């Protein structure tokens, strides 16, 4: 059997304010959002990037998120990126710096409370 030829097309997010949340994520990813009526598409900023699609919230926000994004940054830049995300409107929740030898990360929330982690992995020897 051949391996599946599946790729990630887009991360879809329901938002109370799709335009504002897309603008926040555009600051993080470097993409340029395009409004399509009530929804907003944020294309990948370049090779290896990811697309996002923001649409109006259709029901109450869950009390506990069941999914979050793990974003990876180069070793030694996590603190700088966390500060950049805070200045863009994210909230820092906690750091995990010594639980695993192969990764350090900071858990954050975007302006609407969606969780994301900013992780750095040490260089290979």
Automatic annotation (TrEMBL):
Q: Which SUPFAM superfamilies match?
A: Glyoxalase/Bleomycin resistance protein/Dihydroxybiphenyl dioxygenase (SSF54593)
Q: Where does the secretion signal sit in this chain? A: none
Q: Which InterPro entries match?
A: Glyas_Bleomycin-R_OHBP_Dase, Glyoxalase_6, VOC_core
Q: VOC domain spans which residues?
A: 7-121
Q: Name one Pfam family in it.
A: Glyoxalase_6
Q: Which CDD domains match?
A: VOC (cd06587)
Tell me what this protein is called.
Answer: VOC domain-containing protein
What is the native source organism of this protein? Humibacillus xanthopallidus
């Amino acid at each position: 059997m051949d391996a599946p030829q599946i790729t990630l097309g887009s991360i879809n997010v329901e938002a109370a304010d799709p335009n504002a949340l897309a603008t926040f994520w555009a600051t993080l990813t470097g993409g340029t959002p395009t409004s399509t009526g009530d929804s907003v598409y944020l294309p990948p900023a370049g090779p290896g990037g990811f697309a996002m699609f923001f649409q109006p919230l259709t029901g109450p926000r869950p009390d506990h998120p069941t999914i979050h994004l793990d974003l990876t940054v180069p070793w030694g830049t996590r603190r700088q990126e966390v500060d950049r995300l805070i200045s863009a409107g994210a909230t820092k929740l906690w750091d995990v710096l010594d639980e695993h030898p192969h990764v350090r990360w900071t858990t954050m929330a975007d302006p609407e409370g969606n969780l994301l982690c900013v992780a750095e992995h040490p260089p290979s020897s």
